[in-house]
Amino acid sequence: MADGTAHPASWDRAEIQALFDSTTGWLDRRVLSDEGLYQLELERIFARSWNFMCHESQLKAPGDYVVSYIGEDQLIVVRDEEGEVHALLNTCRHRGNALCRAEQGHAKSFVCSYHGWNYGLDGRLIGVPGLSTFYHGDLDKSRLGLAKARIESHLGFYFATLAPDAPSLHDFLGVTGRTGLAMVCANGEVEVVEGVQKNVIDCNWKIAVDNLFDWYHVPYSHASANTAGFFDIARIQFPKSQMVMLGEYGHAIGGPVIPREVQDQIDGLSDAQRGEMSRAQPEGSPRIRPKSATDLMGPEGVRSQGHPNIFPNLWVTISGTQMCLRLPRGPSHTELWWFTLVPKAAPPQAKREIVRRMNHVFGPAGLLEQDDGENWSQSTRSARGVASRGLGQALSMGLGRDEVRVGAGGEHYVEGLIGEHGQRWLYRAWTEWMSARDWAELEATRSAPPTGLI
Amino acid sequence: MHTSELARTRAWADTPPVERAVVQYEVEQFLYAEAALLDARRYRDWLALMAEDVEYWMPVRRTVTNADIEREFTKPGEVAYFDDDWAYLEMRVKKLEAGSAWSEDPPSRSRHFVSNVRILDTQGDEITVEACFHVYRTRLERDVDQWVGRRVDVVRRGGGGFLLVKRHLFLDQTVIQSTNMSTIF
Lengths: 454, 185
Ligand code: FES
Ligand SMILES: [Fe+2]
Prior knowledge:
The complex is a heterodimer. In chain A, 29% of the residues lie in helices and 23% in strands. Chain A is of the alpha+beta class. In chain A, strands 13, 14, 15, 16, 17, 18, 19, 20, 22, 23 and 24 form an eleven-stranded antiparallel sheet that branches. In chain A, strands 3-12-11-6-5-4-7 form a seven-stranded antiparallel sheet. Chain A has a three-stranded antiparallel sheet with strand order 1-2-21. In chain A, helix 2 packs across helix 14 and helix 3 (169-184) packs across helix 10 (291-301). Residues 1-5 of chain A have low confidence and may be disordered. Chain B is of the alpha+beta class. Chain B is built from five helices and six strands; from the N terminus they run H-H-H-H-E-E-H-E-E-E-E. Chain A binds chain B through residues 101-106, 193-203, 220-221, 223-225, 227-230, 335, 338, 340, 352, 355-356, 358-360, 363-365, 367, 369-371, 373-375, 377, and chain B through 58-60, 62-65, 67-68, 71, 74-75, 77-84, 88, 91-92, 94-96, 98-103, 143, 174-182. The complex binds FE2/S2 (inorganic) cluster and fe (ii) ion. FE2/S2 (inorganic) cluster binds next to loops of chain A.
């Protein structure tokens, strides 16, 4: 874990940009191990971007709260009496003690366990023991409310940012980020199932993130889940029918796709016919989404059977029934939070079946995820040795072979074989976020979604 | 929600001590033998001790305040680390046998400790038993994981021995401090 004493090394713009070469796919492995770069990530990526906090179904009643993170800053996300949701820094303005020590709960107000300062659900300081006696009335409570992050929601998903000058959540997500979240809601409104699986993997957070675009690893890394009969890799992978959508600020969606001509046929079907078609095909086949999903996900997005990442660290899984936050915990550790979501209107038995299946996919005991953790931690370890970190990582698959198409909704995407476009887009965005000193500089220097041959 | 499981039933408490001692001995020997199979990586033999209708479950535990304590564990049907029936347990075993379960090859070295064994109830062929577990796992050069908790098992008598019908595992960690749980508990 980071000990908090490290000082960001002085990485200048040119040095940061040299860490990833998007023309060759060469990635300097220090990106995965350097303490100074990690501290800079906390400032320039996490504290600056929009970070996923929770879903509205986790905050049903006034006073309901969850504790979440922006990087290593802890926040209380709470619904107040008026129904408004706030994101409050979980640190008392007196001496810094944490207000909430439970990960979720229900509160009328937040009372600090150190000296008893009391804060309203909107973060205002409403009570100070001994205000008139020990402080002689000389304390301006109006200036000592809990620090607040900006919080906005899209489709019921709450995100917070510490940057006052960040664009709106809507603009930050852009078409790719919005499509990614819509994937979760493609079958109607959703709710989070009770229980967030949490575990710590000995890997750099970016190794976990770039892996979600990596459909190359599936048959090899997950061969044992295939042999065990948990899933049929041949059916789910579509190595020759892949789509990668590359969005603003580093968002991307990568993975299998329903070919245009097949989707054209689906588009002609009613929801009842689509339901029949879904039931007739074997498990693991492409998800045939209802008509309404096209409005939500767009005509290209609706074809995607891939994995969205909302930059920097929110993975929406292929089925849209799980989401995973990858929280940074020092250069060599990542905390994974797995959320399971089900359509609100689904019958109880259908919900139970989804939950049972999802309980076996990801998470530390998941039949897939068990093996990912092993690979990620060993890849992170090798980024520390002097000689091995000097070798760099090779992310060159498919480089220069795919032509970007632009969809009617402004989607930028490539279609073709499995490649590493998503990973390259992630690290390119990473160098841009890392070398910009503020939002204005990021906006002035970042890459727009690409066009042409990539 | 599990307080009912904490107490021994009246009927069992009223059973004469000598009879209870014999059952206690038999059940303990079964649990130790089962743990030894896991430590010896004899997963097929271990699977043979699972009843066809086995229910193997580890809920998510959460850090909550005392006021909210009934939400400490998720409930059946909600998110869980293990939510297995016999078919899922067999999948875990097949996965371990596949020759490509990278998280267990090289294999972990594990030690399953079972202690504080208390029989809570007997109903016909079935015995409900509470125990504490401590699973120590080390793998590769220096990875060490420890999982400690309480469990409630139901074992069923038959064929000269016992079968495991139910295992509910209540882990003490809330954020699991491990890269994975490729271990069987
Ligand atoms: S630190 Fe919170 S009241 Fe003193
Ligand atoms: Fe994987």
